[in-house]
Every structure is written in structure tokens, then in C-alpha cells.
């Protein structure tokens, strides 16, 4: 192979690597933007999750009271 052909092939490889670098830089910017949005959304979800956890506790308490009322009613019916 002549030097000219090798130089031409090396030039094409170098251009291709340059295009890959540009693509990688664009993807990094996109990833940085995505991470920022994700962090913001996670910050918004944390208070909602805390509220849901508190609501679940209240629902469990109401269920417990309901079970106690059911047992009390059953005992009342049996003792009549």
C-alpha cells in the first residue's frame, strides 16, 4: 500500500473519531440535563412519599379500630 493511501485511511479514521467525540459531548450534555431533572423530581417526590406513609399509618389505625368495633359487636351479640 502506498503512503498516500495510508494517509487517506488515517485521515478518514481521524475524522470518524472526531465525529464520535462530538456525539459523546452531546450525549454528556444530555445526560447532565437528565440528571438535573431527575434530582429536581426526586426532591418533589420525597414530601409526597412522606405524606403517603403518614396516610398509610392512619388507614392502618382506622382498620384496627374497625376490627376492635367488630369484635366488640360480636361479643355484644353473643352475650345477648
The secondary structure category is mainly alpha
Tell me the major beta sheet: none
Number of strands: 0
Alpha-carbon distance between the two ends: 108 Å
The residue ranges in which pLDDT falls below 50 over 5 or more consecutive positions are none
Quick recap of the structure?
The protein is mainly alpha-helical and 80 residues long. The chain is built from 1 helix and no strands.
Written overview of the protein:
This protein is an all-alpha fold and 80 residues long. Helices cover 96% and strands 0% of the residues. It has one helix at residues 3-79.
Topology (elements, then pairings):
Layout: H1 3-79
Tags for this entry?
80 residues; mainly alpha; 96% helix
